[in-house]
């Protein structure tokens, strides 16, 4: 005699739970999303969510860390990249666009945190660390004579990443697009204007 299949909603693993949580955080804001909202959206109990994570804060930490870890992986890759600082900077910008395209909901959430929680403050501190890396590359490129010296390197870095970060507002992935065309376009517009020659 066989046991009948259990009825009910399919289970969620941590990854699918995280995807839904990030979508809700982006739609309603992190502070405006409760665990009750999340359990209703998933169609599971709050205790089923707590089976995977201890808190809503942990979901936020996992989400912003995914975006930040992607950016810092590109930065680490850039450090070992051979070439002039301007080439490293372009490599970093291109890689950052690809991280944004590949992890769009996670990067969107990262760019919307305001420092209201300990996790948000830690994420903002890591973003500032990343900004410093970009500024240092701009300074090196300026010293090497490849970047216009008439603009403060910190301003150049902010403008570059302002352009990259603005993609979350309008970019919508298309089937079959890897984001390389978008990365090419960003680099062409940015670096043709930055280079001294």
Automatic annotation (TrEMBL):
| Domain annotation HTH tetR-type: ranges | 11-71
InterPro entries from the UniProt entry: Homeodomain-like_sf (IPR009057), HTH-type_TetR-like_transc_reg (IPR050109), HTH_TetR (IPR001647), KstR2_TetR_C (IPR041490), Tet_transcr_reg_TetR-rel_C_sf (IPR036271)
List the GO molecular function terms: DNA-binding transcription factor activity; transcription cis-regulatory region binding
DNA-binding region as annotated in the record: 34-53
Which keywords annotate this record?
A: DNA-binding, Transcription, Transcription regulation
Please give the PANTHER family that the UniProt record associates with this protein. HTH-TYPE TRANSCRIPTIONAL REGULATOR BETI (PTHR30055:SF234), HTH-TYPE TRANSCRIPTIONAL REGULATOR RUTR (PTHR30055)
Name of the protein in question: TetR family transcriptional regulator
